[in-house]
Amino acid sequence: MSVMTMKKILPVFFTLVLVFAAHTHATSESVPSNIWEFTTDYYDVIGEPGLSASLVGDNEYNAGDKATLFIQLMNDGLVFGFRTENTPSNADETIDAQTELDKEYDVTTALNIRGTLENVHGAPVKVLSGVLQGGSLREGEVSTPMEFDIEIFNNALSGTYQFALNLTYQYQYDVKVDGYPDQEYDYWYVTRNQTLPVTIIVKPRASFSIENVTAHSRPGDQTVLSITYKNVGDETAQDAVGRISVVDPFSTTDDQAYIGTLAPGDSFQAKYRIKVDGNALPKTYGINTEVKYRDERGDIQISDVMKAPVPVYEDIPFSEKMGNNVYLVVIVIVGVLGLYYYKRRSRTK
């Protein structure tokens, strides 16, 4: 390729690069690169952004909930003052200095905010969301809420739990202006990290476990199923009712049992009448059960479904059912036959 050809191509190439760069800068949400070419700096405005966070809506949840935390940011940035670095020497520099001073007050604007919610204190909660964008906020502005998804463990105890909202953003630390009437600007941005507390409350609740199950059941039997429930939660359950849900080989017309009031740590034995199908295989079956109750606010709650193990034993052979009574039966039969023959012989004499 000749030198003349290269001279024609290079300007076109650089023009395309500049156009691409300008388009990229216009569409990007990132902070421009720091440029510090001018020597004259007229003012320094001293200040910075200051972000605060608050939850939008209720911050109380139940154990086992999946929820979205709507966290709203507000920029409470402050300007503490300014100092003069250089005094303008002519009218043009005076205009540049005034333009610079106006732009210096953007020191309180937070740019390109990003946030993560971290469980730093070991709360019984799983944070499901990663890094979220928070946009940019001028002083006094409020953001669109950042939406963090969480899952509270089923066994979470009631109480207050705190998370760390880690924020990263940039702000304009300094600016220089030169060249009136064709002014050019130099910007200098710095990155700041800020950690804010976010608090949620896990509400008290009753929670139940099965302590004991008793059922002497065989194929074809009607029997009593006894289930002992214990309140292992941290709230009193009022007007509690135990319920069972049976499937083959069981049936029942008595699937509810009144329990009453169960304070934390209290137990109660509920009894249900069940029938076992005559063709039931001997093994242990699971019967689903739950407790319906009123919480301390008077709201109706239903516990998690628990499974009660109910064994069905082998049917007892007739001879085993009779046991030692077989001999008594034989004696009775022999006695009856003997009496019959005695009376018959007496009639023939």
Q: What would you call the structural class?
A: alpha+beta
The total of helices stands at 4
Fraction of helical residues: 10-25%
Element-by-element helix/strand order: HEEEEEHEEEEEEEEEEEEEEEHH
Low-confidence residue ranges: 1-29
Distance between the termini: 151 Å
Largest sheet: 5 strands, mixed
- Please identify, by name, the CATH architecture of the largest domain: Sandwich
The CATH topology annotation of the largest domain reads as Immunoglobulin-like
Fourth-level CATH superfamily of the largest domain: Immunoglobulins
The CATH class of the largest domain is identified as Mainly Beta
- Identify the strand order in the major beta sheet: 3-11-10-6-8
Shape: rod-shaped
What is this structure, in a nutshell?
This protein is an alpha+beta fold. It has helices at residues 3-27, 91-104, 318-322, 325-348; strands spanning 43-48, 51-55, 60-61, 66-75, 78-84, 110-118, 125-127, 132-137, 146-152, 159-178, 184-202, 208-214, 222-231, 237-245, 250-251, 256-262, 267-276, 284-294, 300-302, 306-311.
Provide a descriptive summary of the structure in words.
It is a single chain. The chain has 349 residues and is an alpha+beta fold. It folds into 2 domains: 30-202, Sandwich (Immunoglobulin-like); 208-316, Immunoglobulin-like (Sandwich). The protein has 4 helices and 20 strands. The protein has helices spanning 3-27, 91-104, 318-322, 325-348; strands at 43-48, 51-55, 60-61, 66-75, 78-84, 110-118, 125-127, 132-137, 146-152, 159-178, 184-202, 208-214, 222-231, 237-245, 250-251, 256-262, 267-276, 284-294, 300-302, 306-311. The strands form 5 sheets. It has a 5-stranded mixed β-sheet with strand order 3-11-10-6-8. A hairpin with a 5-residue loop joins strand 18 (284-294) and strand 19. The protein is rod-shaped and about 160 Å long. The N and C termini lie far apart (151 Å). The model is unreliable at 1-29 (pLDDT under 50).
